[in-house]
Every structure is written in structure tokens, then in C-alpha cells.
Amino acid sequence: MSLLQVHQLDHGYGTGGLLRRRAWLPVLEGIDLALAAGESTGLLGSSGSGKSTLARLLLGLERPTRGQVRFAGEDVSQLRGEAARNFQRAVQLVFQDAPSAFNPQRTVGWSIAEPLRHLSDMSQAQQRERVLHLLEQMGLRAEHAERLPQQLSGGQLQRANIARALAISPKLVVLDEALSNLDRVLQLQLLQRLDALRRESGTAFVLISHDLSLVRYFCQRVVLLAEGRIVEDRPVERAMAFEHPLGRQLQEAVLPGAPSRAALCEG
């Protein structure tokens, strides 16, 4: 059984107001998708293609207009009580805007530990030990836990943001353009660390991006979204043979000599 299954998912929003006839604006149509435990899938698409909307639906932050999102066999929209709490533990979303994930009046370590306080039975000592381990995994030091968010650089804060998402050992992490504001060296360092985690723990990842080179570096599979529909779904080894025009545009945008997944595995 797949960890995550999406079947014939449609989603849209109403437009207009009291004085205008209400119209329907489709955002996603006919989405079918499956993700296995321990798999990393790249979700590619241009701005407005519906990538972030799909991310919110995968994590149950919105309910689809039609179709189903199933996690470990359960319909996400129907989860209640302890089942909903278990789902919250199992999935995490990392946005591009790292500062929004942190309380500016609290230390970075306090914010990283927040999911542990609400979704685990760890003691304060165990929480602190977990926070320091996560910071080390992300290439940060123990002293960063005692700083306020504004005292960290953008790259440091985004690494702390990813550490926060990993705090409760989720089964699925969705990275929604989470690496877009980082320089290329830091992007690749983070992806190496996350790939090591994926191999060790079986955590699945969805990397949402418009950067084909990052997807080729990190993912086993690539899904291309155009105008709210999946138009390509293929192994990453064939990511440079897209047939859809958008895929060919993304191919042309890849920098010469961009690292491939083979480079990551060798590292």
C-alpha cells in the first residue's frame, strides 16, 4: 500500500460577491498521485500551476472539492480525534518564508520544540536533547538554539525551520519552495542531509519547485503540473526527456553542469 494516495482530485474556488454572479475558478483537475514510504518525489510547475494548493490538500489543510486524499489508507478529510492527531504527527509542511514559522519573541530552540510539547510525551530534558540533535543534523550549533530568529541568517533560519518540521519524526515532509531563497551550495548541502535522513528513517519527501536541477539531484520521481493538471509523471532519470512544452522550458533553464542524482549518491 502506498503511504499517500490521491484519486481524481479536483479543487477550485468561488469568485464574485453579492453584486456579481458567482463563478467557479478551477485550480486542480483530475489529480491522481501515489507516494511510497521513503520515496522523494519532485513536483514541478510554473507559478499558478496549483503546486501550493496541492500541498495544502495533501496535508489536510484544505478539503478537496471532489476526490480523495488517503494517507496510510485513511481518507484525510474524515479523520477525527486521535486519528487526526496521529496524522498531524505524521505530516509536515515547510514553506519558503522561514520567519513566519518562528515566534520573534522566543528562542529558536523554543520554536523547534513546539511540536514536541503538543504532539509528544517527551520531558523537557528529552525535548532539549532532541532539538540539539536536529540542529546538528542541519549543520547548526547548540548555541543557535538560544538565539532569537532575527539573530540568525536567512540560511540558518531555514535550516532551523526544517529541523522544526522534523522534530516529531514525520513520515511525510512537503518542502514548498523551501530552498528557493538559499544559495546553490546550501541547497545541495541541505538536500544531502535530507537524503541521508530519508535513507535512514524511511521518511518520504515531496519537493515542490520550479528548479528541475534540484529535483534531479534529490528525487527518484518527477511530476509535472501545468494549469492544474498532471501532464508528466516519470522516473527522474527520464526528466530530461519531457514531451510537454513546459517540461522542455524547464529543461532549457537547467544550468550547464547542474548536479544529477548520481552525484548525490556518490557523495
UniProtKB/TrEMBL annotation:
One of its GO terms (cellular component) is plasma membrane. Keywords: ATP-binding, Cell inner membrane, Cell membrane, Hydrolase, Ion transport, Membrane, Nickel, Nickel transport, Nucleotide-binding, Translocase, Transport. The keyword Glycoprotein does not apply. It is a peripheral membrane protein. The keyword Disulfide bond does not apply. Residues 13-252 form the ABC transporter domain. Part of the ABC transporter complex NikABCDE involved in nickel import. Responsible for energy coupling to the transport system. This is Nickel import ATP-binding protein NikE. The gene is nikE.
